[in-house]
Amino acid sequence: MGKIKVVVTEEGEIQIEAKEGFEGKSCQEAIDFILNNLPVGFEFAELETIRHGNWSMVAENPQQVYTQKE
Amino acid sequence: MSTTQKTSIRGLKIGEDQLKLLGETVTELVGSAGTVTIKEEGSQGLQIRSHHNVRADSKYADIKIRFHGASADVGIYVEKDGQIGMAWDNYVVRGNQQLKDAFEGRQDRNTFEKNLNAMFVAKTFEQTAIKKGFSSSGVNRVSLKGEKMGQFELTLDTGFSNAFSNDEQKNTLSGSLGGGL
């Protein structure tokens, strides 16, 4: 069981953060799973920045590992 | 005399079968600030009232908003390619206290468009996740009063499994995303 927090700002920035319950890349897989299943034809060209807290190719810090809470 | 005509909300296109969700989003966003009417499926649309001439291609809207205290309508239009357009003149929100309360003192068109855009994106994420078995906390608007703006937040719960089988890919959106993925 994992939790993903999605924030969409008025300025068109989307932040997606894996909050808890994930290990390794599984949070990325969960986010991709949603993105790949968005409705056909749906577009938000102005909302193009996506960040999430666990997995970033540009992150300088070591990737965090989310583990299942007891 | 001025002319009222629809103009696009930049970048926002709705997907197939999303008119209902758009209507729900508009209704929720307008809240107590006005009345929202959604056209019947297959109908010509809803004739909007304006203080100005209304351009021929903007006379009939898919969704109509009449803000309290106004004598003109806001029209929301869904084009064939899913592009969303809006038409309104300055009279429709003048002095609407409910809008000011909802949007940190703002009642202008630009603020409403930005909020509609953001809320619809959040609700689309939610709808997609629920269809795939996730549960949602619901979409909530959080006011950032220090910055005089707001944002839409939701928390999605994946359920008991973290194994995400990739169903057939239906949207290639992720290929165009910028940022830090």
Helix residue percentage of chain A: 10-25%
Largest sheet of chain B: 5 strands, antiparallel
- What is the SS-derived class of chain B? alpha+beta
- Listing every helix as H and every strand as E from the N terminus to the C terminus, the arrangement of chain B reads EEHEEEEEEEHHEEEE
- Please, how many domains of chain A? 1
Largest sheet of chain A: 3 strands, mixed
Measured on Cα atoms, how large is the radius of gyration of chain A? 13 Å
Widest sheet: strand ordering of chain B? 2-9-8-7-3
Strand content of chain A: 25-35%
Largest interface: A-B, 47 and 55 residues
How many DSSP helices of chain B?
3
**What is the terminal-to-terminal distance of chain A?**
11 Å
Please report the distance between the alpha carbons of the first and last residues of chain B.
49 Å
The ordered string of helix (H) and strand (E) elements of chain A is EEHEE
Overall mean pLDDT of chain B: 82
| Overall 3D shape of chain A | flat
Question: How much helix is in the residues of chain B?
Answer: 10-25%
Mean pLDDT of chain A: 64
Strand order of the largest sheet of chain A: 1-2-4
